[in-house]
Amino acid sequence: MNETDTLVVEGLNGARKIKGTIAVNGSKNDALPALASSLLFQSPLTLTNVPEIEDIERLSTLLIGLGFSITKDKKTLTLDASQLHGATLDRDIAKKMRASIILTGPLLARQGEVHFPHPGGCVIGERPIDLFLDGFTQMGAKVNNRAGMYHLTTADGHLHGTEIFFRQQAVTATETFLLAGVLARGRTILKNCALEPEITSLGNCLVHHGAKISGLGTTTLVIDGGPLLTAKNPTYEIIPDRIEAGSFLILGALVARELIITDCEPEHLEAIIFCLQSAGAKIEIGKKQVIIRATPRQSYRALTIKTHEYPGFPTDLQALMSVFLTQARGESRLFETIFEGRLGHLETLARMGANVSIHNQHQATIVGPTPLVGRTVISPDLRAGLAYLLAGLIAKGQTVIHNVHYIDRGYERIDERLRALGLDVKRQH
Ligand code: EPZ
């Protein structure tokens, strides 16, 4: 895969004929903090079911730049921090990837200092980092900002536990301070934490390997800090990607007579399953799989979708859901409550024939069903890129998607996996 790849998609013009099975990969947003957690261990940490995607490669490169040795065998990564040196994140890489900020907490807690660039906003919003800087200050760090880099230092080489109330629930902020608390001196109490399953799963893994954490699964986490975790051969299996699973459910609702989605965790899919069923989709829930079925003339009811922190409707599925709503009968309403720049894809869907009205940065209306027509489009980010792919699959004619590298950041070999379902998606270099 490279930066100039494009995807060429032949539309089904609304036909629903796919019948097949697709397996869900390990979660990008679980694997990223899991890689960062390797800084907490004395022994090398082995991660299994790691998705083979660009963001994991990028975070691995950042860690290798800090002296890590990382071995990779397909979906298994082993991360050895024993030769860790320095505490400066490579500016060019860290700037491109918001998730690099997850490294700052464990690195500052372990090294007593950390130096990093602003992880940069992206099309979905400004992505401030005040929660991080304020929290680290409360834990005893001194924050300087020079020449576009943040320099965080500590007087005695340690962070100190304290009580932190997050002014809003934030996923990577919760993860960063959970990890920092494991090595901080004393007790760290985190309030108004995010409840994403990736946080709870990683926290349970740390507890299993000797960390003292309580409150997992609630909005208050209590961490009693100590030295590096001494568990021998620590391992962690990355949980299924609920956003990928949700993406395939929406795909199935629009192009499949039957789509079996395996290796997923239905318990993490309640919001998307509830919404699709409310629209009239037929979904069968198994132990580690979900099956969605649609008749050729299946019609769906319009919905009101309001994104919300977990377990509410995930903002990462909002763009894909917008495509679904262009095919739902009636007026649907969208409330994107998490980010202020995450409705831009609606303009592109309108160019493809959707009937959308954007009222402000957070609200829009979609009237359906409207037939879509294939266009040449530019993927602005990971999730909108997949939404364009889905729109191209239901449209009449051909859609060419540029900036496919954004999609590759979060969806492993997406074109191969869709072709395996019989969909006409070709990658062009
Ligand atoms: C995580 O991003 C995910 N990324 C995002 O997925 C996801 O969209 C987001 O959570 C919300 O669910 C990873 O887990 C790697 P936030 P994160 O901090 O943690 C504001 C994808 O496509 N905020 O929960 O960066 C922020 O502006 C990505 O996989 C501050 O104001 O999101 C936003 O409005 C996209 N100050 C809100 O909190 C801060 O210091 C939630 O953001 C931090 C965040």
Termini gap = 8 Å
Number of strands: 24
Uncertain residue ranges: none
Helix segment count? 14
Strand share of the residues? 25-35%
Largest sheet: 5 strands, mixed
Shape: elongated
Helix and strand content put the structural class at alpha/beta
Q: And the CATH topology of the largest domain?
A: UDP-n-acetylglucosamine1-carboxyvinyl-transferase, Chain
The hetero molecules present are: ligand EPZ
The CATH architecture name of the largest domain reads Alpha-beta prism
Helical fraction equals 25-40%
Output the radius of gyration: 22 Å
Quickly count the domains.
Answer: 2
CATH class of the largest domain: Alpha Beta
Name the CATH homologous superfamily of the largest domain: Enolpyruvate transferase domain
Query: Kindly state the mean pLDDT as a whole number?
Result: 96
Question: What does this entry look like structurally?
Answer:
By secondary structure, this protein is of the alpha/beta class. The chain folds into 2 domains: about 5-25 and about 240-429, Enolpyruvate transferase domain (UDP-n-acetylglucosamine1-carboxyvinyl-transferase, Chain, Alpha-beta prism), CATH 3.65.10.10; about 30-235, Enolpyruvate transferase domain (UDP-n-acetylglucosamine1-carboxyvinyl-transferase, Chain, Alpha-beta prism), CATH 3.65.10. Helices cover about 30% and strands about 25% of the residues. It contains 14 helices and 24 strands. A hairpin with a 4-residue loop joins strand 15 and strand 16. Helix 1 packs parallel to helix 7 (about 195-210) and helix 4 (about 105-110) packs parallel to helix 6. The longest helix has 14 residues, at about 240-255. It is elongated and about 65 Å long. The model has no long low-confidence stretch (mean pLDDT about 95). The structure holds ligand EPZ. Ligand EPZ binds next to helix 1, helix 5, helix 6 and helix 12.
